[in-house]
Amino acid sequence: MCAKTEEEKLFLPWADIEPHVARWHREGIEYLSKIWPSLSERKAANDTWGDEVESQLVRFDKDSHEVHLVLEQKEVLSCIDSNAPEGTFDPEFAQYMVETSPREPYISTVSSLLEVQGNLEARRAKVNRLLPKNEKLMTLSVFPLLGIESPIDTRNNQHVDSYDNAISDGPYSFAKDNIEARAKRGTSIEVPVYQDVCTTLPKMMELKHILYGPGACGLQATFQCKTLTEARSLHDQFIVLGPIFLALTAATPIYQGVLVDTDARWNQTAAAVDDRPEHEFGRLYPRWSTAPMYLSKQRDIGDSGLNSDLINVLRQDTNFLESHGMDSAMAQYFAYLHLHDPLYLNATRGRHEHVTPEDVHRSICESVWSHVRLKVPEPNAADQGWRVEFRPMEVQFTDFDNAAFLIFLDLVRQVLAWMGPKLDFYMPLELVRENMDRAHARDAVVKQKFWFPGHVVQDTSSGEGVKLNNHGPDIPEWTVDEIINGRTKGDAAFPGLLPLVERYLKEKMGQDSEQLHPYLDLIRRRANGQDVTPAHWMRSFVHCHPTYERDSRISQRACYDMLQEAERMRIHASSGSNSSPGSIGN
To answer: What keywords appear on the UniProt entry (predicted)?
Structure first.
């Protein structure tokens, strides 16, 4: 069966897509080659940016001391005007999720950055005003009891009988069905269980529904660049920084009511949406994965990050795109994207003959979810530039914390633009992938080391910037504290991302930038361990709760109390509170 969208079009099931994918791939590549001349020269007037915050609708039952997800997305969104001044409010994968974004993009000024926290708070408050007093919009990564009790359907106040019924309509339900149909298997996600002194659970637990992936929430930021060249450079720099931000924001220590031995959701989400049949393993990266390659023109094509076998598979499409004006790196990148099949396509009356090459190209670009993603401008949106989406961050409990990471990320972007080629974080992509895995470990932010090209061969005090020795075989391993706050001892030294930001603020932004210090202090403390991640805080709360029996299992009462406390922390950290802004601390 096909479901109607607002445009009165119908989504195609995989059975109607599969017979036509070979032709559609060719047509999609040809369509891209035709629009490329104008897109490649697209220029944006400003380097603006915005955020996307995914949240969950949660109900607290004071009498029973229980907490549940509620499927109230449609009702909430139907009450919000599409031109609401607070921001934009959109559906997400599950009916208990809402995604919000600022109405107007931010710019790179102190005054604009100081609006971020207030805007996050206003968007949350907009939704909370529409909810009963015992319900809240919470910025949770994964609801701790998802899989123990199904969400509540507010139309009948009953738990849904199938998790499939918690998935949102339209492309989301079809994505779920088409992923499973293309892979020829159901969802299976393996997560290591935290082994406490009384744990009797197996060492690995299996999660068997897609909701454990895209039904989780993240914190994303998208940066519009003035030119494609700038976007490619930012894309490459962000690739290396992604695992560091994942470790800093880790917020997922519990699945299905069980403490697990990881702190982040990225790999679990990748497994949930992996549509590769067995013969594609080892040939094609998952849709949700580390970015597949570097894009800068300055990079030798052999340094792009793609393995030689995959380069050979892409050769025909790469050569075709090069013959139509693309340089080798961009031709390889788009050939790689188009190696994936379109997951969701909608067309008039649901007929495949109404699918256009533009539909295919757009579907593919929108359904390959790398940790850093280059976003193609709409051909008919002349004022839209090339954008870079940064996707690995985990969402934090409080708007203050979310604002801190968004502000810091934008300031790092400004520093990268300011210093240009003097600050180049390139290193082999296999080390970035290893860093992404390390970022999942318990307390990775303070206990793990990460490959990082931090050999400083020129001191910043000279005013000529930093030059990194990142092309040799001896890339060192660093703690997050050293990467963020700096390292001055030993054979290698690096001033640190935060000191570089502070130097930039002092030289370029002036005294007003001091108002940003509370946010930067959070980053400093999170990196050096003075402030803990949400994942660490949740573990500690569970361990100290009177209902915890050291068996790795989380009770309803413990979850209720934990999320109540998370709400109190959010209110305490709000800009309108009488107390000073802060985070979860120790």
So the answer is: ATP-binding, Glutathione biosynthesis, Ligase, Nucleotide-binding
3-state class of 295 per DSSP? coil
Q: Which residue has tokens 């319900």? A: 135
CA dihedral over 294, 53, 479, 424, signed as positive or negative: positive
What would the two tokens of residue 528 be? 């050096």
Rg over CA atoms, the chain: 23
Longest alpha-carbon distance in the chain: 69
CA 271 to chain centre: 15
Q: Count CA atoms within 13 Å of residue 537 on its CB side.
A: 21
The three-class DSSP label of residue 389 is: strand
pTM over 0.90: yes
Question: What residue type is assigned to position 415 of the chain?
Answer: V
Give the residue among 336, 392, 413 at the shortest CA–CA distance from 107: 413
User: What pLDDT is recorded for position 3?
Assistant: 46
pLDDT of residue 437: 98
User: What confidence tens digit (pLDDT) does each residue in 141-163 have?
Assistant: 999 999 998 999 988 899 999 99
Contacts of 244 (CB under 8 A, 6+ apart): 435, 439, 450, 452, 480, 483, 484
Cα 115 to Cα 48: distance, rounded to the nearest angstrom: 14
Rounded CA separation 174/12 (Å) = 8
Q: Point out the residues of the chain with pLDDT beneath 50.
A: 1-7, 456-465, 469, 578-582, 585-586
Phi, psi of 347 (to 5 degrees): -150, 160
pLDDT of 231 reads: 97
Amino acid at 43: K
Distances (CA, A) of 368 to 287, 351, 361: 5, 24, 11
Do the Cβ atoms of 274 and 340 come closer than 8 Å?
no
Residue spans of beta strands (DSSP E) within 3-110: 9-11, 49-61, 66-71, 88-91, 97-101
Identify the H or E element spanning 339: none
Phi, psi of 154 (to 5 degrees): -70, -10
CB 570 within 8 A of CB 585: no
Nearest partner of 498 among 436, 409, 399, 401, judged by Cα? 409
Query: What CA–CA distance (Å, rounded) separates 74 from 80?
Result: 10
Which of 583, 443, 450 shows the shortest CA–CA distance to 520?
583
CA angle 290, 295, 296 (to 5 degrees): 135
